[in-house]
Design brief:
By secondary structure, the chain is mainly beta. The chain has one helix at 2-15; strands at residues 20-33, 38-50, 54-67, 70-84, 90-101, 106-122, 126-141, 149-165, 170-180, 188-199, 204-214, 225-236. It is globular.
């Protein structure tokens, strides 16, 4: 009985999806502990195109931090995904991710691959999915003694959920990635992000964001784990 309810809810939602563009911009400030303890600001943007067959999402983030008026962090990432037959419960996708992280000593990281997504639940107020992909990870660390370029295939497993609570007055989002190396599964990247969002108007919102990263590849002398707690505001259109 439970599975029938989920299936009907998903089918009704999928049939109403139309081709459209949407975008979100946000600015945040946060306290970070780990490699550094500092004041940090970041800007994030996302553009989504939902077509009849393919959904493409381009997202990017740029952050900058200082301690005692001295730069101690600067990070950037951009990702592009193309999800084929995204209205179906099962859908294949392609992905490309690039990253620069001053605090971790990552000069350049690229992750490219393809995988399969499965939608567990989809309705107007609740969407949850899991996905798995095979990716090629290329990481170039800062040029100091003890560092080197690292290339390895990885399995990338993602869990993602977004839930509207209290009739949409509060929105909870969570996404996590677990990426073990296929050459040595003990070497893995784990990332997660939790967001509490409070809509002010149809387009404007305030939020609190918690991020945690544990990276198996960092520059010599740097810590593997970082946490960020963010408070900010954004605009969707």
């Amino acid at each position: 009985m439970f599975s029938v309810v989920i299936s009907n809810s998903y089918s009704q939602t999928a049939d109403t999806v139309k081709t459209e563009w949407s975008a979100t911009l946000s600015m945040n400030g946060l306290y970070q502990s780990g490699n550094t303890n500092k004041i940090y600001v970041s800007g994030k943007g996302e553009i989504k195109n939902s077509g009849k067959i393919i959904e493409t999402i381009l997202a990017s983030s740029l952050g900058y931090g200082e301690s005692n008026f001295k730069k101690d962090n600067n990070d950037f990432y951009a990702s592009l995904t193309a999800d084929l037959f995204y209205k179906n419960r099962w859908s294949p996708f392609l992905l490309q991710f690039v990253e620069y992280n001053f605090a971790s000593g990552i000069d350049f990281r690229s992750q490219s691959g393809a995988g399969l997504k499965y939608i567990l639940v989809q309705s107007e107020d609740h969407k949850t999915s899991i996905s798995a992909a095979c990716i090629y990870d290329y990481t170039n660390l800062t040029s100091i003694p003890g560092n080197s370029k690292i290339e390895t295939p990885r399995l990338s497993v993602r869990f993602k959920t977004r839930q509207k609570l209290f009739s949409g007055k509060l929105i909870f989002s969570f996404v996590s990635f677990y990426q073990p190396s296929l050459e040595n599964i003990a070497n893995a990247i784990f990332r997660c992000e939790s967001i509490l969002e409070v809509p002010i108007t149809k387009s404007i919102f305030v939020n609190a964001v918690y991020k945690y990263t544990d990276d198996d590849i960092v520059s010599a002398g740097r810590k593997r784990s970082d946490t960020k707690l963010t408070f900010g505001a954004g605009y969707s259109f």
